[in-house]
Amino acid sequence: xxxxxxxxxxxxxxxxxxxxxxxxxxxxxxxxxxxxxxxxxxxxxxxxxxxxxxxxxxxxxxxxxxxxxxxxxxxxxxxxxxxxxxxxxxxxxxxxxxxxxxxxxxxxxxxxxxxxxxxxxxxxxxxxxxxxxxxxxxxxxxxxxxxxxxxxxxxxxxxxxxxxxxxxxxxxxxxxxxxxxxxxxxxxxxxxxxxxxxxxxxxxxxxxxxxxxxxxxxxxxxxxxxxxxxxxxxxxxxxxxxxxxxxxxxxxxxxxxxxxxxxxxxxxxxxxxxxxxxxxxxxxxxxxxxxxxxxxxxxxxxxxxxxxxxxxxxxxxxxxxxxxxxxxxxxxxxxxxxxxxxxxxxxxxxxxxxxxxxxx
Length: 360
Ligand SMILES: Cc1ncc(COP(=O)(O)O)c(C=O)c1O
Hints:
The model has no long low-confidence stretch (mean pLDDT 96). The protein is 40% helix and 16% strand. The chain starts with 5 loop residues before the first helix and ends with a helix. Helix 3 (42-52) crosses helix 11, helix 4 (66-76) runs parallel beside helix 11 (249-260) and helix 5 (89-100) packs across helix 6 (116-123). The strands form three sheets. A seven-stranded mixed sheet has the order 2-8-7-6-5-3-4, sandwiched between helices. It has a four-stranded antiparallel sheet with strand order 9-10-13-12, covered by helices on one side. Strands 1-11 form a two-stranded parallel sheet. With 360 residues, the protein is of the alpha/beta class. Helix 8 (171-180) links the parallel strand 5 and strand 6 (184-188). It folds into two domains: 8-40 and 264-358, Aspartate Aminotransferase, domain 1 (Alpha-Beta Complex), CATH 3.90.1150.10; 55-260, Type I PLP-dependent aspartate aminotransferase-like (Major domain) (Aspartate Aminotransferase, domain 2, 3-Layer(aba) Sandwich), CATH 3.40.640. It is built from 14 helices and 13 strands. The protein binds pyridoxal-5'-phosphate (PLP). Pyridoxal-5'-phosphate binds at residues 34, 88-90, 114, 159, 163, 188, 190, 214, 216, 226. Residues 34, 88-90, 114, 159, 163, 188, 190, 214, 216, 226 line the site of pyridoxal-5'-phosphate (PLP).
């Protein structure tokens, strides 16, 4: 029998981390994870079923995801040498930190933003630094650059649109950052399909720019596919640290089908965008709520007096949203992902019931 002091073996960066809490509560209506509420279209599923017959699942996947890269390169009008495929775009965040940072280095981002930038950085012994977003959830490029310089930050992360605030930062400020920073600027476009604003077109002009995209928000969250677009030199360095089979055969194939048969997904996106307008319009009618504008498939709202109470009420009624109240800037804020029309109606009707019982 062994009784090794395991805690003592664990490296200090990991020991001091708190586990990342992913809500996985069994709720009928899941509006908490910014997923696509629609299943993949029949057309996509038929294509996958057909492909599965020819899969050689006893063989390793294509380590270079070549077919998937061709389909992405064509859609984005870029070259495959500028692409890397990740097991989710999360993985590419990790790979970028491995390529560009050493223990003790800092990375920087405006806050609040996507929590994984800081979490992955801390796990690698890096120092996450942030500057606060202003009251419109935007930032000033000069200030960000100044703090980045003071901290000798190696990478700036900009979630564009920003999760969880939902908005795209001012295009001009982002451009100033890309043009004036002498480190790497990651523009994380995980929600691009809902914003349709992108910096991909600037990749060839700026060799320090990396754009990230994800297929998780448009229907393939369960398959974990993300990709990065960057200068070929950066891609080559990422490939040195990337595990060779990071993207499996099923994910590569389904993602390729999605890229080459985008119409059904585009219809789903259009419907999400229509529902976003409707849902925000309806919520704005509630006096007790402040609803923030969104370029994403989710939006943020503040509720007085207690987001915790509303969160629990919705959960008790089978609706799971994201409670962000623990963040100092997001006091009493909830984030809701746009669902199907029926799901959104259920949410709206529960909101009306709640407001009536709270203010009879
Ligand atoms: C801004 C942002 N970037 C990246 C990701 C990660 O996406 P993926 O599922 O591709 O790892 C998310 C997921 O929520 C996100 O909000």
